[in-house]
From TrEMBL:
<comment type="similarity">
    <text>Belongs to the thymidine kinase family.</text>
</comment>
<dbReference type="GO" id="GO:0005524">
    <property type="term" value="F:ATP binding"/>
</dbReference>
<keyword id="KW-0067">ATP-binding</keyword>
<dbReference type="GO" id="GO:0071897">
    <property type="term" value="P:DNA biosynthetic process"/>
</dbReference>
<comment type="pathway">
    <text>Pyrimidine metabolism.</text>
</comment>
<dbReference type="InterPro" id="IPR027417">
    <property type="entry name" value="P-loop_NTPase"/>
</dbReference>
<dbReference type="GO" id="GO:0046104">
    <property type="term" value="P:thymidine metabolic process"/>
</dbReference>
<keyword id="KW-0808">Transferase</keyword>
<dbReference type="GO" id="GO:0042802">
    <property type="term" value="F:identical protein binding"/>
</dbReference>
<dbReference type="GO" id="GO:0006950">
    <property type="term" value="P:response to stress"/>
</dbReference>
<dbReference type="InterPro" id="IPR001267">
    <property type="entry name" value="Thymidine_kinase"/>
</dbReference>
<dbReference type="Pfam" id="PF00265">
    <property type="entry name" value="TK"/>
</dbReference>
<comment type="pathway">
    <text>Purine metabolism.</text>
</comment>
<dbReference type="GO" id="GO:0046872">
    <property type="term" value="F:metal ion binding"/>
</dbReference>
<feature type="active site" description="Proton acceptor">
    <location>
        <position position="90"/>
    </location>
</feature>
<dbReference type="GO" id="GO:0004797">
    <property type="term" value="F:thymidine kinase activity"/>
</dbReference>
<dbReference type="InterPro" id="IPR020633">
    <property type="entry name" value="Thymidine_kinase_CS"/>
</dbReference>
Length: 213
């Protein structure tokens, strides 16, 4: 029977250094002689296809997968048996995160270190990251710096008026903010959206009048 594994969760808003912390811990495990592997979602193609990359450019080779359940088969049974530590970046994109962590830590005896967003741009639970907390040995909540005032930032503000939950982007679409500027920012975004819609309706109305004339 395999020895008991571990689950370590690193979470927080965008630009909080989650991937940097993940890479640091995985590299430390590797330097201590443990066999490691890194996984990221195939949805994340922002910086590199075959590497986990931090916002400041640090890289680590990884397996790019649409789901976690396929990892063992693709990694190879013999190699998997020798594996000690699995790092998972952008964990919120994996729907099977809970089941994978439960199987790998509880039954396969491996250590999982995962990093992901705990909430989306609406401050609602994003993916399964929060579901894994009851399985976790440790949970680390990181913060960023508010882009508006420099205070600690706990939330991610979307700059655009797109409404889908999964909209992958960087500083072009998102910024870390404190509570005050999250609330103020949401008001600003909603106001801008209303103005755009009003202009759109007015423009469409003018077009219809012109067509009738």
């Amino acid at each position: 029977m395999a020895s008991s594994g571990e689950v370590h969760v690193i979470m927080g808003p965008m630009f909080a250094g989650k991937t940097t912390s993940l890479l640091r811990r995985v590299k430390s495990e590797s330097n201590n002689g443990r066999n490691v592997a890194m996984i990221k979602s195939s949805k994340d193609t922002r910086y590199a296809i075959d590497s986990v990359v931090t916002h400041d450019g640090a890289k680590f080779p990884c397996w790019v997968l649409p789901d976690l359940s396929s990892f063992r088969q693709k990694f190879g049974e013999e190699a998997y048996e020798k594996l000690d530590v699995i790092g998972i970046d952008e964990a919120q994109f994996f729907d099977d995160l809970y089941d994978f962590c439960s199987q790998v830590a509880d039954h396969d005896g491996k250590t999982i270190i995962l990093a992901g967003l705990d909430g989306d741009y609406l401050r609602r639970s994003f993916g399964s990251v929060l579901d894994v907390i009851p399985l976790a040995d440790t949970v680390t909540k990181l913060t960023a710096r508010c882009e508006m005032c420099g205070k600690r930032a706990f939330f991610t503000l979307r700059k655009s008026d797109d409404k889908e939950t999964e909209l992958i982007g960087g500083a072009d679409l998102y910024m870390p903010v404190c509570r005050q500027h999250y609330v103020n920012g949401q008001v600003a975004v909603e106001t801008a959206r209303s103005v755009v819609e009003a202009h759109k309706i007015k423009s469409e109305g003018s077009t219809e009048v012109a067509s009738v004339v």
